[in-house]
Amino acid sequence: GYEDVWSSTRGWPKSATFHEGRLYFGGSKSRPNTIWGSKVIDFFNFNPGSGLDDESVEATINTNQLNSIVNIIAGADLRIFTTGGEFVVIQSEDAPVTPASFLIRPQTRLGARPGVPIEDLNGASVFVQRQGKSVNAFQYGSGTRSYQVQQISVLSSHLIKNPVDLAARRSTSTDEADRLFIVNGDDGSMSVYSILVGQEVIAPSSFTTDGDFIAVATEISDTYCIVKRTVNSQVRYYLEKFDQTLTLDSAKTGTAASSTTMDHLEGETVEIVRDGVVEPTQTVPASPFTITFANAATSDFQVGLEYTVQAKTMPTEPVLGSGSVQGVKKRIVQVDALLNETKDLVINGKQISFRNFGTGVLDTPIQAFTGLKTAHGILGYSATGQITLTQNVPLPMTVLGLEYKLS
Predict the structure, then answer these.
(1) pTM reported for the whole predicted model
(2) 88: Cβ contacts below 8 Å, ≥ 6 apart
């Protein structure tokens, strides 16, 4: 008189993970708040047997609301994310999970968004809240000896717009941060967070492109995304990879050449960077889709779509002996920018020079500059006194820090 708990009729589990030698499944159609764990090192055996320590486990989350399981994550403990809240299978010191100790304890009551992945980042499980309006980190706090939620997007909730996908790229060197990529379903943008846990830094950015981001994924140090673009009046989907050495979108790159084929951007206006020199824009013609350079590239080239770079500081609010200057008209009169390998920069609309006149200047690439550049004579009073960094051409720019004088 028994029936399989999973079937085409009863439905199949929505999530799965491995944890301490067991394969766990969570949340089926007919039992959305139940989790099952296999026998130890016998991943397809879910027979409860006589309840020995190594036999399968099963539990149902019963509270005063429906907790449909969205995802299960293996961390220091087995973490269970549902539409109604976050739960944990608590384990004592070095004690394994057994049928007798398989108890699910509630922790927080935010709820996770179905369909959006949950990523582990420095021991914290990062998830999107069920309404799709905030990004949170679920982590054990040694001070409180309980699990807590830190709101990653507390100062950037305007960048979270109905998320549909999420991926994390862990830092691979000491001079970079962890990055969290969140694809927004409302406008096709991508919210990207640079996170340095040890320095308590959470820096949000908004990535946009000529089209819509659809999905994102990471493989060690590489980040891939699916982009929906309208090219030559046709909707096309591309698999593209982020490359920090390039300064153009959906670009093709190569070494020595006099032309390149851009069949994936037919009819689009593209930028050309040849041997570090920015050439005039061209429109990709019909077949054979060839872009011919003004001068043949001798070392490298890239051809692709231009994108706008803008970084803006927070309002300047120094506290003086006479009190706060918040709301008082103010003007940034000088900015000192500490740069690394930079070739182009505009500060509050003022173009920064990177080369001097002399012989052999024209038709040669701008040399990358590392050091301090100063912008004088910046005009305009405002109530905020913010500094805006932009670019006029697609060349490398890395700003390490800013100092300024305020009037």
Answers:
(1) 0.89
(2) 77, 78, 79, 80, 104, 105, 107, 147
